[in-house]
Amino acid sequence: MKYIKALLVCVFSLLFAVSSSQSDIDYKASTIPISLKIKANAVVRFDKQIVEINDFDDMYITTKRIVTVFNEYGNRHQNAFEGYDGNTKIKKMEARIYNESGEEIKKFKLRDFSDQSAVSGGTLYSDSRVKYLSYTPVKYPYTIEYVSEVQMKSTAFVPQWRPIDDYYVSVENSEYKIINNSDVKIRTKSENFDTYNIEALSDIHVKAENLSGIKYEAYNPGISNIVPSLKSALSTFNMEGVKGENNNWEDFGKWMYNKLITGTDAIPQSAIDEVKALTANTTDNLEKAKQVYQYMQDKTRYISVQVGIGGWKPMDAMDVDKLGYSDCKGLTNYTKALLEAVGVPSYYTVVWGDNDIKSIDSEFSVTEGNHVILCVPHNEENIFLECTSQTNPFGFTAGFTDDRDVLLVTPEGGKITHTKVYNAEDSQQITTANINITATGDISAQVEVKTTGYQYSLHEHVVNQSLRDQKLNYKEYWDNINNLEVLSIDINNDKNGVVLKETIALKASNYASKSGNRLILMPNMFNRMTNIPPRYEKRNLDFKLQRAYKDVDEFIIDLPEGIVVEAMGEGEKVESKFGFYEYKIEQIDSSKLKYSRTHIMNKGNYSKEDYSAFRDFKKQIVKLDKTKIVLKVN
């Protein structure tokens, strides 16, 4: 049987080489159609990947890719690299470089490729490495032809087809094909085929021609949601020696529970005794979970560990307890074991963790996700715990794992659920200030900034900064105020209520500009919007506002004796589908003004036709935030 497989691989490789050599590819940069050079840092001239499935634990991938690179930004699209480990063997890697005229100027064999660990320096240890082409061009444009052959025992990660892998990349020809020599069923899912020139020869064989580059546009919904793609998964797969079934999320989750998690949750009796003693005075599961979460945070720290079953199997909880560190998998599993010791159920949860919101595909089960968190069910609500942070408030997910579909790994199998959505009322920033202004335009102020929800996540980093860095942070935050000097800082981090309160005393010289016997004052000193979304002659992409928030500001301005208000507006209101804005200026008495402001942004998906109206809304806010008051010195 092994001989037959080897023969098939050999014959297949030969056929691939012949078919590739027969493709009529001109390496001259001048032969690329003008339409593909527009909005392109690189053009993929030819890209053919064939995935051969010989068995549930035998996958052979052959790639040939020819890319013309026009500038330094296009270098990243060579894609001349391969990862490897004990279950992945690189059989062949070659690259040839051609100059603008199509003449070969350099050749690389397997031994010429650079080799390094595939993970960052923050990783404790890992068995994953990568070979990659390290080539510095002397002149643009140039063309690279890259060929590789890789054999994999792990079939949990079937390569996806995504002909356009980034912005500013055009594609002349791209082809992807799966050859199934086994009895294993292959499931596929295609996305965004309708709006591109895609030829689907079958569910597992697709081609694309003449795909123009996509220009980056602000607030876009994410490149992966725009471009065509084909995802594939084997119904029976192997992950580094562990066989699994994956017909749906229920199957996949059951495999994870039985093969990856079960048997890893034993903890020492000393830890069990400690958490039981800690929670002895309460019968409320939520309160128990809070106490255990704090116990875990105080006892452990995060460090990456990328070994085991494809980096998917958690470290044994016993080892985490002993060492005091692990990665997201190990820390989540350890917290789960601690909760079980005090009778609180919880579920290991797979998620795409990132500031940009990205969901697990609820309709198609495939090995995906880059992070693990813990779900604690409470009444009708799921509370999610970030176990890698030593400072995160209990149940707080805003900014990294909020508002997305995730996979719960339960004894009954995998279940898709959604993490907490933080609406505008949840994510508030309330800024109050008492301000004194002098006759020369200097100001001194006591400012309080209180944040919750997503806005808490934007400010929370300041808690653990040095005093020097905190001062620099506020100078940058209020960069509209020249000559700003921070006098004192007091920060109160209420982790139970998830409220951060920053109190800052400051002063600045010449804030208000002087003109003769008049002072020109902008009353919105501490929450001014300055950025207008970029203007596009023609918007091509729909846009997305990922998160909602609400800002409430109230500044009391004390005027010195001899200064009177000569001119000021009363306020203005702006309403749109994107949000709400209002400011008011009131004279409380002869020496006191009150400036108040409310700004609400709505989350949502919007059509490209709405972008101009959105930009106008933001532009109006920027303009109104610069509202001036004219003061006169008597």
Structural features:
Jelly Rolls, 3 domains, 634 residues, 10 helices, C8orf32 fold, eight-stranded mixed beta sheet, single chain, alpha+beta, globular, Immunoglobulin-like
How would you characterize this protein structure?
- With 634 residues, this protein is an alpha+beta fold.
- It has three domains: 8-240, Immunoglobulin-like, CATH 2.60.40.3140; 248-418, C8orf32 fold (Roll); 428-633, Jelly Rolls (Sandwich), CATH 2.60.120.
- It contains ten helices and 38 strands.
- The strands form ten sheets. It has an eight-stranded mixed sheet with strand order 5-4-9-2-1-10-13-12, covered by helices on one side. It has an eight-stranded mixed sheet with strand order 27-28-26-25-32-36-35-34. Strands 22-21-20-23-24 form a five-stranded antiparallel sheet.
- A hairpin with a 2-residue loop joins strand 35 and strand 36.
- Helix 5 packs across helix 7 and helix 6 (317-323) packs across helix 7.
- It is globular and about 90 Å long.
- Mean pLDDT is 93; it is low at 1-23 and 121-125.
Helix content: 10-25%
Number of strands: 38
The global form is globular
Q: What proportion strand?
A: 35-45%
CATH architecture verdict of the largest domain = Sandwich
